From TrEMBL:
InterPro entries: ABC_transp_permease
Residue ranges crossing the lipid bilayer per the database entry: 12-29, 58-79, 86-106, 126-152, 173-191, 197-217, 229-248, 260-279
Keywords: Cell membrane, Membrane, Transmembrane, Transmembrane helix
Organism: Paenibacillus chartarius
Pfam families referenced in this protein's UniProt entry, alphabetically: BPD_transp_2 (PF02653)
Localization terms from the record: Cell membrane
Protein name as catalogued: ABC transporter permease
Membrane association type: Multi-pass membrane protein
Top-rank lineage group of the source organism: Bacteria
Main location: membrane
Amino acid sequence: MLESMTGAVELGLLYALMALGVYITYRILDFPDLTVDGSFATGGAVAAILITHGASPWLATLAALASGLAAGALTGLLHTKGKINGLLSGILMMIALYSINMRIMGGKPNISLLGTGTIFNPETTLLMMLIVVVVVKLLLDAFFATDLGLALRATGDNSRMIRSFGANTDTTKIIGVSLSNGLVALSGGLIAQQSGFADISMGIGMIVIGLASVIIGEAIFGGGSIFRATLAAVLGSIVYRMIYAIALRVEWLSASDLKLITALIVIVVLVLPSVRRTVGQKKAARKRVIELTAAPSQGGGR
């Protein structure tokens, strides 16, 4: 059990970068970006093909980040300059990336990294990922405190207002979506190295996993400031993987049920706050009725 929880924390940190990327589009930009499913696989494909061709694993990791930045920028351009609906822009880019990823991988559906060097050492993976995630999180916090970061946050809150101050919302959207997918692709590149292979379908469902991590983090640890919100996304990713690991230990569940487990976790996390709110409102209404019915009798007693 301890070993599976350690593995869950390790995976949670690997996927935390993806969760931070989803947080940028989902919470900050309020942009429904489905490019994530494609850019995650792009990061894995780029890292894997470069490593198998003798490139440095660190260089391959940076190339994965760059590929995600490019994919996100294209989605942003489709939306802002092409005037295509944000959701449709992400879908179109996700579809295009499937073919692009196949091209990157030389027409193969998967690439094995067994026997090649990666940035990971089995004994230090957890520590390395903890350092990487903390550094990325702090850099994001610092970025969102800059003028450009504040403009990006304001674009998501009220794009009309920020335009009235002379800010170019098209630019901030492109930067935000690009940064988001860069982190997603970086996560994909790291996952490919940690698992020992890159697969054309490895990005399927990533947007749901990212949203689950963000929502779980906010539900448990709260939001508020950028520092707290990014921390919640990271911790939410870890908690999600722990829930996942526990679910897999249930005897009547199999590996083929993983996507179902993901969907159920998201449904529960989304429904619970609404249920809690409804129960609270009913209690408050009942209390108010009791107070109103008790008031006349108290007045008559006087």
